[in-house]
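Thread: "does anyone have the structure for this chain?"

Original post by V.I.:
We have the sequence but no experimental structure in hand. Need at least a predicted one for the grant figures.
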Amino acid sequence: MSKDQSETRRLLMRLRQQHNLSQSEIGRRTGISQTRLSRWEAGDIADAADAALKLRELVVKCDAQAKRRTAKAA
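Reply from O.Q.:
Generated one for you, tokens below.
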């Protein structure tokens, strides 16, 4: 597994764990198929820079939403 592939896998797992998202929900929000997301989590990651970028964008959005919720609760 290349460095980029392991980074994509780590990013996906972090997104799902920290934001309690299913593969289906991530797929709905990014347009990446649930099947592809499942393969990525299993370590079978093909070169997919465009999909990885969409995933990264979702992480940034979810992190921002979580920060706003935390700020409102304080």
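V.I.: this helps a lot. The helical segments are 3-19, 23-30, 34-41, 49-73.
O.Q.: and The chain is about 80% helix and 0% strand.
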